Inverse folding.
């Protein structure tokens, strides 16, 4: 095992960065002021963006079935708005400019209010100039709690965040066209941001892992714990899955329930880069009980025949020509054109073949709905709101469009989204 010097620094920095994190969760209703904040990130005092004095934004908690309420106040010089990622909510609460609401101007506010039907790990983030605003910190976790949560000693969020820094370690962003048209902005500093918690050996943890990084795909390994994946993108998996590496693409979440079995817990990317850790002190006896599946959320099935559709990802460096105006396109169109990719009556099931005809990976995210990943035989796999399609590969998904409105479908690599890889679906 090699721990690079850079890694050690990053690790210490990650623990220090948590000084900015509120240890207590915030309940709804909440006044979420969007504002510039200073935070200790990567070992340096940084000018970031945050919600209510906090980078990342506070972890919001609400009971399943309750009504979530947030008044978002814009304390920036620029416009902003907030998207509640992964939630099945009414379209006008989805926080997408042009499609669902106007941008909130500086000094103004917007009230979001919706029921939360599904328990799980969700997140919220700016959906305006998101490459810049999310890249600088406008994100946080939204946790919808089960009626009967699993028995654990600690339940907390770990955000995997990356950024570029200058020679003094300061946040630095100077995006090049190659970044937008290539793999995106992969920061030189990557951190696992978790609250300043000390756990005991033998404790059972529920880790809610979230990837709010704008473009980076993590191959996450966690040493010092032994456990199982219990949910992906907020949705419980039918059978908890063991893991060595967790692939977490931008926007994706993964809940892990695990016991602490060593004297330190360390998060690494690609088996090497240390992202951060959790302090361990003291011990208790391990639980004898197995890690059981979480109760499933009630999911809609299709009504009637399932349609099929193709969505081809095009462009980028070295990619073939397409008819879109930007470097990336979906089915020959860049950005939110006039016509939706699909226009379907409510309840329609659509099997969509996502074909990546580019030289780079993409993670396709659908708003307002989850979908099943399908394997080659058509069998239903994981139920997600974002799926990774590697360069040159294709993946089929089955979405049941039961939520009326205009919903975005886009690459959650925010550099790619900014440069055209986005479309939308109308559900009538
Ligand atoms: Cu997490 Cu369209 O976004
Ligand atoms: Cu992409």
């Amino acid at each position: 095992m090699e721990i690079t010097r850079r890694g050690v620094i990053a690790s210490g920095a990650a623990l220090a960065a948590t000084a900015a994190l509120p240890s207590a969760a915030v309940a709804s209703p909440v006044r979420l002021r969007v504002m510039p904040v200073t935070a200790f990130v990567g070992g340096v005092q940084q000018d970031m963006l945050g919600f209510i004095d906090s980078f990342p934004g506070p972890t919001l908690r609400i009971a399943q079935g309750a009504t979530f309420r947030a008044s978002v106040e814009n304390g920036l010089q620029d416009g902003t708005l907030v998207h509640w990622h992964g939630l099945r909510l009414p379209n006008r609460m989805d926080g997408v400019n042009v499609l669902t609401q106007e941008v909130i101007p500086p000094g103004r506010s917007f009230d979001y209010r919706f029921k939360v039907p599904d328990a799980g790990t969700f997140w919220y983030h700016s959906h305006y100039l998101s490459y810049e605003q999310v890249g600088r910190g406008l994100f946080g976790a939204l946790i919808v709690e089960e009626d009967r949560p699993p028995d654990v000693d600690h339940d907390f969020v770990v955000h995997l965040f990356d950024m570029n820094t200058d020679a003094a370690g300061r946040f630095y962003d100077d995006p090049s066209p190659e970044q937008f048209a290539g793999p995106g902005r992969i920061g030189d500093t990557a951190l696992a941001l978790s609250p300043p918690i000390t756990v005991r050996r033998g404790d059972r943890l529920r880790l809610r892992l979230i990837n709010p990084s704008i473009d980076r795909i993590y191959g996450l390994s966690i040493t010092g714990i032994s456990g199982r994946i219990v949910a992906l993108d907020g949705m419980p998996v039918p059978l908890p899955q063991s893991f060595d590496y967790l692939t977490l693409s931008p926007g994706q979440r993964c809940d892990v329930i695990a016991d602490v079995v060593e004297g330190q817990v360390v998060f690494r990317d690609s088996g090497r880069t240390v992202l951060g850790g959790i302090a361990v002190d003291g011990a208790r006896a391990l639980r004898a009980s197995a890690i059981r599946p979480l109760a499933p959320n009630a999911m809609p099935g299709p009504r009637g025949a399932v349609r099929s559709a193709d969505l081809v990802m095009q462009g980028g460096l070295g990619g073939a020509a397409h008819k879109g105006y930007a470097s990336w396109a979906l089915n020959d169109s860049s950005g939110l054109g006039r016509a939706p990719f699909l226009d379907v009556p409510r309840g329609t099931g659509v099997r969509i073949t996502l074909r990546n005809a580019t030289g780079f990976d993409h993670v396709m995210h659908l708003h307002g709905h989850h979908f099943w990943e399908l394997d080659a035989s058509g069998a239903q796999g994981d139920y997600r709101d974002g799926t990774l399609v590697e360069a040159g590969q294709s993946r089929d998904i089955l979405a049941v469009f039961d939520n009326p409105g205009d919903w975005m479908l886009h690459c959650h690599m925010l550099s790619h989204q900014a440069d055209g890889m986005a479309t939308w679906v109308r559900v009538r």
Notes: The first strand starts at residue 26 and ends at 27. Helices lie at 5-17, 130-135, 177-181, 414-418. Confidence is low (pLDDT under 50) at residues 1-23. Residues 362, 411, 413, 416, 421 surround copper (II) ion (ligand 2) (CB under 6 Å).
